[in-house]
Design a protein that fits this description.
Order of helices and strands: EEEHHEHEHEEH
Distance between the termini: 29 Å
Number of strands: 7
CATH superfamily: Glutaredoxin
Radius of gyration: 14 Å
Shape: globular
Structural class: alpha/beta
Length: about 160
Amino acid sequence: MSIQVGQAAPAFTLYDTDKNKVSLADLKGKNVVVLFFPLAFTGVCTTELCNVRDNIAVYNNTNATVLGVSVDSLFTLGKFKAEQNLNFPLLSDFNKDAAKAFGVLYETFPAFEMQGVSKRAAFVIDAEGVVRYAEVCPTPGDLPDFAAIQQTLSTLA
């Protein structure tokens, strides 16, 4: 079962595409949007993350840090980030620890029977580390409800 609204967000420390460790605990005092996405370079994931890129001011204006999280390697994510000109960190959950902690890991991904791929999911975590919005998309082809994410952020700003 995935993390629910009102619960404390699970702690995680993951590498970003610049090979730096990023810990959720280090972002305490800021709102954080954690976007789990299945795989870099796929159509829906590209659409999702480019939507965030194109609307980054909305997130910045609500004191929010956006983190994209995938089970891809940090090298794959680095190439993806560069090709799409993404303006927020992508974190490698290669060992699947964060996806497991948030309860968003597929046993078997619907496409190609891959195991260990994260579900598409969005979490808004407030400055105190409490989950204020939680959405696990029903299928990998669905996008998160960006309006609901932004509405939640507006109540926290």
